[in-house]
Amino acid sequence: MQNIYSSVWFKGFLVAALMSCGSVVAAAEAEIKKEGAAPAITSPAYVQPKGTVVRVNGVAIDAVELRRAEKVMLRGQTVPAEQQSAVDKQALKQLISAELLFQGAAKQEYKDLEKDVDAKLVQGKSRFKTEQDFAKAIKDLEMDEKDLREYTRRDLLINRFIETTFVPKATVSEADVRAFYDKNQDKFTQAESVKASHILIGVDSSATPEAKTKAREKAESLRKQLTGGADFAALAKDNSTCPSSKQGGDLGYFGKGQMVPPFEKATFALKPGEISDVVETQFGYHIIKLTEKKPAVTTDFKEVKGKIEEYLKGQSINEMIQKYIADAEKTAKIDILLK
Predict the structure, then answer these.
(1) Which CATH number does the domain housing residue 218 bear?
(2) What is the pLDDT of residue 8?
(3) Considering only CA atoms, which of 204, 224, 226, 206 is closest in space to residue 215?
(4) Could you tell me the residue range of the domain that residue 49 belongs to?
(5) Radius of gyration for the chain, computed over Cα atoms and rounded to the nearest angstrom
(6) Which of 2, 58, 98, 254 has its C-alpha lying 20 to 30 A from 325's C-alpha?
(7) Are residues 174 and 43 in the same domain?
(8) Total domains in the fold of the chain
């Protein structure tokens, strides 16, 4: 479950990572980890917009803000030219929503705003190893520190607006929490799982019959040694062709659907401590040892009650923000200039 604020961001009502210092920093960090120049956000055939792309109640939003929004949205992915129009519209919608929220937030008093901005900026800079890394990151987003400070101010104002306007109104009854739990049992159930080790004598599925026979004979020989008391982990280290051989064949825990069917069927049929017959898969011949079996477990309602309540409150806040934006759009003067 996400907390209230991450849920709000996830649903896109605080939109445009540009409205969040944290989101801008996260996007910048992702970019500077890559070699070379900042990645293109679209194909070379696309001509990026210039100048004002929209006015919201007289406030101009420039194309540079649209580009920043798209960089954060796309995380460096390349967008085909035929899809760019849809990306532009989505980013523009987010910017309009964010501006409407900000205009509502700007009407409220916020004591110590500049002090909080300073603290937020210090926190953001601390994520970078050097000042040079930080400077490059914001430059790649076509920003300078003045821009970043302004976006940070907006972010704090919007968050305060949400905290004071919407959060207090978000109430969830215990009946609602219980109903969500009952209707979503799959979200609170941990499926049956097993912990197992194996020894693989690998052979390609297209190998000759002679090669397959030789591989199976080796696997049968190893199994015979195991039934005679040989150490499973030692044999796995010396003979298994699976990378897990380094851990004595240990595969850790896994559930159904994670292994190929013949392997899964054989493993789940074992009791802890048992060793399987030789099992054939497309990878070769396996000898499997079951270490532990965990039955399916459903988390008790009391353990997840708080998280469910938080999640449902987040949904309620999302709905209120969405309604606020929709109502604001009805009376706002929005001039879209993006072609």
Answers:
(1) 3.10.50.40
(2) 30
(3) 204
(4) 4-178+303-336
(5) 28
(6) 2
(7) yes
(8) 2
Q: In what order do the strands lie in the sheet with 279-281?
A: 250-255, 193-202, 284-294, 279-281
Residue 186 resides in a domain? no
Q: In sequence order, what are the residues at sequence separation of 6 or more whose Cβ sits closer than 8 angstroms to the Cβ of residue 29?
A: 127, 128, 137
**Is 257 part of a structural domain of the chain?**
yes
Taking the C-alpha atoms of residue 107 and residue 157, their distance in angstroms, rounded to an integer, is 10
Helix ranges (DSSP H) in 228-275: 232-239, 261-268
**Are residues 171 and 40 located together in one domain of the fold?**
yes
Is 187 a domain residue? no
Summarize pLDDT for 231-285 with one digit per residue, the tens: 999 999 999 999 999 999 999 999 999 999 999 999 999 999 999 999 999 999 9
| Tokens linked to 97 | 């929503």
Cβ burial of 127 (10 Å; 0-12, 13-18, 19+) is middle
Q: What is the pLDDT of residue 73?
A: 82
Average per-residue pLDDT in the chain? Answer: 85
User: Contact at 8 Å (CB) between 338 and 66?
Assistant: yes
d(C-alpha 305, C-alpha 47), whole Å: 51
Backbone angles phi, psi at 111, to 5 degrees: -70, 145
